[in-house]
Amino acid sequence: MNNVVPIYINSLSKSFGNKLVLNNLNLIVEKPSIISIVGNNGAGKSVFLHCMLNFMKYDSGEIRILNQNIDDRIFLRKNTAFVSSDHQDYLEKLTVEEYFELLIDIYQLPANQTINIYHQLSEELNITKELGTNFSELSFGTKKKVQLIGAILYDPKLLVCDEIFEGLDYQATEWVKNLFKKRKAENKTTLFTSHILQHTTEVADRLYRLEGGRLIEEYIN
Ligand SMILES: Nc1ncnc2c1ncn2[C@@H]1O[C@H](COP(=O)(O)OP(=O)(O)OP(=O)(O)O)[C@@H](O)[C@H]1O
Hints:
Elements (H helix, E strand, L loop, with lengths): L6 E10 L2 E11 L4 E5 L6 H8 L7 E6 L2 E2 L3 H7 E4 L12 H11 L4 H14 L15 H15 L3 E4 L8 H16 L3 E5 L3 H7 L2 E6 L2 E5 L3
Parallel strand pairs: 3-8, 3-9, 6-7, 7-8
Antiparallel strand pairs: 1-2, 1-4, 4-5, 9-10
């Protein structure tokens, strides 16, 4: 029996000064699935994802990912991946290939096999020419592709993507949707934010709107 709850968030609050961004927000994802969050600019989607993955401090609430409290940051980093909407500070000065090599070391992945996989994925996503380029010099969409490939290499149980479809071409968009579905078939959870409702409704099992600092479930036809 699978008792692992991918996401459990109870009464999460976060403010900046006197500006309350997350207001007793709750989210329970009880089984591997594809979850989407939409919301207006400034609604708090990115702040929510950063708190959830312990990249940002929050004021109060309880967050458990895959049954573990997020204070266990090593567990969190091993079992989750974050594809940010624009940059990843620690990546900026690495080339794409250096980043993938670093992941092989950190996650103790089988080197030859993983090198073959990232070359294959780089071809599929049309970024082979960028393997020697510094992350900071890549285009918006390419940065997302690189982070996605990095995530696939260590195959986390929870993949979190911020504004994933923005900046991706048609082919990459379809590729990402297939990736999310494949992950679900393998009992892994994906949570993504997006402004593009069409992609959201095509792929998500559950859709939430972040509004007034809380998540409100919307129904997908
Ligand atoms: N480090 C920070 N310091 C102060 N305010 C912040 C900080 N980060 C975010 N905010 C504020 O929190 C609110 C939510 O921002 P957030 O980036 O989470 O919105 P979002 O829903 O992701 O928006 P978008 O769709 O435009 O990306 C905004 O009002 C923003 O100005």
